[in-house]
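Re-run with default settings, no changes from the original entry. Doing this only to confirm the output is reproducible before filing.
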Amino acid sequence: MALAASRAAHVIDYLSVHPGQPLSLTEISRALGVNAASTLSVLAALADSGYVVRHPTHKTYTLGAALVAVGHAALMQHPTLDAARQELSLLADEIDAQCTASVLMGDLLVAVVAEGRPRRAGTWSRIGTRVPFSAPFGAPFAAFGDHSLRKRWLGGRSGVDLDEARTRRLEDALTEVRERGYAVWRDSETREELGQRLRMLDDEPSDTGLRREVVSLLRELSEGFVAVNLDSGNLFDIANVTAPVFSPSGEVIMILTGIGFATPLEGAAVAEVGTRLQASAQVIAMRTFGSSAEPDGSPHERAPDRRGSSWSKEIQW
């Protein structure tokens, strides 16, 4: 029963990152690495419940209307999402870039809001996009999280080695994030290559070779995730700027990211984007909780396992 439920979740996840794209049984079973007979059984059960629809002629599958009710209930359960959607729609126009909101689910960061469009090819994100929770992705979660969360981000569960020099450099970068209140990540060819591999994984999530390539690229990217001196007056080719949304208790519940800037930015302009993201994070917190929270500048020591939170679910990477 647990295996069937897991496979059903994976089918819905897979269809959700291919919205409007009818997929055949063969395509779905191959992508998920599950035999056709088992996949057909799962699809039949989901179709009976209205969660997927099977085309009577083409025999392809798409998401069903029953998920609209589920999505509406989720929005009511998590008002942060609607607040983020409204705020990021305005922010994307202001900073002339795409803006996303992501949450931490198990060992993955999942985009739950995407507004605006990137001004640079190859940098776009979409709702449902998943990336590993590993340096440099999701730095604010690690910067303001507990020891267990920081260890995971440093590579403890992604297959990336935890060597001393790398760990020290990344810890320094997290200190910068805590002091500024937002993270800055410089762009590179490696980042573009990783983005391509992650989009390929959207289509072939069971491809172990692609996953090994992602781990290798993550390590290479994390080597370049260092403190950035925004006071230098230099131009920076920025991959993204990310700020946390805090709950009233000071826990990071969501991160806001600006991506796809058209041209390199001066340090002062990068800082302005970071400050604007922080302001939007406070607006979202106010609309959700009735008050905004400020970090105390140090990691929050909480129970080491976040899987009990309302956002979390077990997703294998």
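Confidence is low (pLDDT under 50) at residues 297-317. The chain has two domains: 2-69, 78-308.
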